[in-house]
Structures are given as structure tokens and as C-alpha cells.
Write a structure and sequence with these properties.
single chain; alpha+beta; OB fold (Dihydrolipoamide Acetyltransferase, E2P); 2 domains; five-stranded mixed β-barrel
Length: about 290
Amino acid sequence: MKPLPHTSATVSYNGLYADDHIVDIRHLAKSLDGIGLLSNGILHFYLYGEVAKHPNSFRVRSYAGPPLATSLSYEIVALMTSSQLPLFAPFLLEVAETFLPRIWEAAIAKGSGNRRLMEKQLEFIQDQAKRYDEFANKVHEGHMQDKRWLQEHIDKITLLNRNGLQSLPAPVGDSCRTVSVWNNSDSPVVVDEPTATALRKPDEIQVGDTFNARLIIRALNLDSGAGKADLIGHENKRVDIKVTDPNIILPKNLYSGSLDKQTELKVVAKPTLRDGQMTRLFISDAESSE
């Protein structure tokens, strides 16, 4: 049986041990299982315009191919569970690489509590759908151009695939830095450590947007990257931090320098939040403010 065209997605694990092409095997299995669950749900929705309420209802299933050469990357392909394709499947498959990564991004943003990113992806899907006459009133009865309809279905996908979303980032923060889905597209979906934290605890933690900040590091564990810092311009608020920048392992790096000399850094950071209050700041890049 041949895979459905234009629906193959590359999944990659990067950073930490994954850069040496190894990752915790239990976490890898759990992550691929979560990716499979979410992929099945999203593909079924995209092709049929409905959200399957039970795994047995999926008319399309995802399968993993062998790892790509010298990497921790896998090609995920889709196969039909029956011979019956929806009427407009040829058109939907032709434009799948435009829409599927954005649906993935919207679902992950919803699951991690990043409403602004979810809204951005829904608007993109709606705008792209308006470019094709087939979406006006034929495919899914024109609903792909209806942002409210899209929102309702992304909410259902996220709710019904909650276990998959929690499992997807299993190795992140332990044996890899990120999991990337649709790495073979123009819009790869990257799940980093703050996003992974929010996906694991969807009722407690949300992820915020990346922003630039100035801070002074007050405590730092160079092995784990965990520490504390004072945010400049925020009444010198003391916050928990996690440095995910791989440069932290280098001798005389900026982070240990800030701790030793109590100097200010300009950083690229992404927060996790609880009830709107910052719980931790994840730092991915830095430069000296001097």
C-alpha cells in the first residue's frame, strides 16, 4: 500500500544526547506514540472535516519509517485504513504541506496554553483557505474559511488527543533539547523545553511568547542549567531560570561570567506561567550588555 502523497512528515530529536544520535529509549517510544496519536487525529480531521472521537474511528493511520541516515530523524507516513477517500482528497493532498504543519502548530499551541500563537496559526489557515476556490463552499462545506469552526475543531483535537500531546515531548529536557515535527516543510513545528513543560501539565502551566530581557544571574548549576536571576526593569524581580543554550558548557561562558562578576546579560527567553504569573524563564541565547 502506498503512503498518501504530500503528508509525510519528518520528526527530529535535537540537542543534548540526541546530537550524538542517542536518546532515552523509553522516552523515544513514548514520544513516537504521542506523535502517532496526534498525527492520526489531525490527518483524519484534515481529510474528512470531522474530529474522530475514538482511535478506532480513524480512517487514516500514521506509520514510522526507518531512521534517516546518521540522525535521530524519522519519516512519518500516512496510510488509509480503507480504500474510501473523501471526494476532494486529491485537492487536499495537493495542498497538504501548506495546511498540515499549521494545524499541528495550532494544536500544540492550544495544548501548551499559548493562545497568541494558536490565533496566529488559525488566521494563517483561514487566509490560505480563502486563496483556493475549492475551500469556498465545496471542501468541508466552506468551513476551512471559518475561524470559529477551526477553533472549535482544534479545541476538540487537543482535548481528545490530550494523552498524545503529553507524550510527544517525553525526551525533551532529559536526553534532547527539542522535538521537531514537519522538519521537512517550510514551517517546522518545534517543541522546546518550556513548551514541553506546559504540554505535560496542561491544567497547571502555560507557555508564553519569546522575548528579550536583561538580567543578572544570582545562582547557577552549570550541569543542569537551573538557577536564579534578577530581571532588570521588573523591580529586579528574582526568578527561577533554566539555561538551554548549549554554550553553557563552554569554559568562561557568559552565564558563569554573569554569576562570578554579577554583570548584566541581554538574553532571549521564553517563560512558563501559572495563572498568569511567571514560574520559570528558559534562556536560549545571551550576549553581554557591556
